[in-house]
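quick one if you have a minute, typing this from the bus. below you get a single protein, a line of residues and a line of whole numbers that encode the local backbone shape. could you go over both lines and see whether the tokens make sense for that sequence. anything you notice is useful, everything is just below.
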Amino acid sequence: MERVLKDDAIDEKGERARMASFVGAMAIADLVKTTLGPKGMDKILQSTGRGRSVTVTNDGATILKSLHIDSPAAKVLVDISKVQDDEVGDGTTSVVVLAGELLREAEKLVNMKIHPMTIIAGFRMAADCARNALLQRTMDNKENTDKFRADLMNIAMTTLSSKILSQDKEYFAELAVDAVLRLKGSTNLEAIQILKKPGGSLRDSFLDEGFILDKKIGIGQPKRIENAKILVANTAMDTDKVKIYGARVRVDSMSKVADIEAAEKQKMREKVQKIIAHGINCFVNRQLIYNFPEELFADVGILAIEHADFEGIERLALVTGGEIASTFDNPESVKLGHCKVIEEIMIGEDRLIHFSGVKMGQACSIVLRGASEHVLDEAERSLHDALCVLSQTVNDTRVLFGGGWPEMVMAKEVDELARKTPGKKSHAIDAFSRALQAIPTTIADNAGLDSAELISQLRAEHHKENCTAGIDVITGSRRHAEAGDSGVVQGEAGHSSVCDRGGGDDPQGR
């Protein structure tokens, strides 16, 4: 009989295969579990590639993206965190911890000889019940501008509380809320540019309207332009040599070399004239601009900016309302960008170019300052999470308390459903309730608190009507939202959830 598998292949069937899947997924959940909540730890990741770059982060999606995983079930958990990161921006650790706990509970049920289809049916009933429990308790302050801004501030502080920016979370929450409110309901975060500049402290970071390009203005170029018309291009502005690989030009005298150079110069002069014919006063190019064309531009008072990085140039075209051009024969078909003022500014010791009064009025730049590249990278990830969650909340304005409160509310409702449900499904529903309690338990464990004591106290509190208790990991106790909290568990209160989408990995708020 012919062999189907190779010599070193491993064949796993039935129980063993299922067990291997459970183990792989639970290992991933345990790996990121310690990063959950305001007291979550950072991980140091070292790449296996050249240069051995090091990343210091506690962002669940970043950690999971960096792992090389064999287990198919574990890969599903990584995909869950990626989807959460793309759709909401935060809550990446929470979804993996919850999925891992559901699998842990499912494994126990399988060992009790309950069929997987029965478990799945029970889990689906429990998920619907939990979602409805949250929907009944949402609050919506979109009609009251002041209360809604307070909600956004609390959500931003919630998201930032478990990150590196937690020391200055009020300052950065203000930055994030101001930036997102400029978008006027759009979820296109392309309009918000985050620029990292080493030096200074995190509190030196600031929000500026318009767009900042990380380039210097060349020598002899105008340093300030008003009512700018900008041509954004991706074209070769080095001397137009014969650009065919391996091509050679043979000449029999030096005068002919001079003729070739003169012809090249003439070709470049014609190209520059075509660009000037667009009626512009600023030319931004993705590629190099050699000295000769730069001189030609300076002579007619056009600001020429070379080597603008690709992401920078795409965002510049977006916010100024222009398009990236590469041919210049038909000026009428090229869409130019517009802004009120272009000027050179200083940030730390670096010179940059500031485009203010851009066509896309909601565009703004957040300049992050910090001691090192690692701090800046993590600050950028933290701020990106906050911006994503805030932009989603502006669209769907329903909010909830945080601090483990949503999980306990859901667990209580699911528990009651389990008691009413006959048959083996009730075991699965009960298991779902236990899995939900894993998130507040993990938050308390990461803060070094007695999670068993705290969760049992919370469970007792939640059996009272209209309970607002959550975990306060700073004082290590239960905490109630007070009347003046506008529906927010104040203090560093653990995990947060924004309506039914899931909101922050973290504490304080909604």
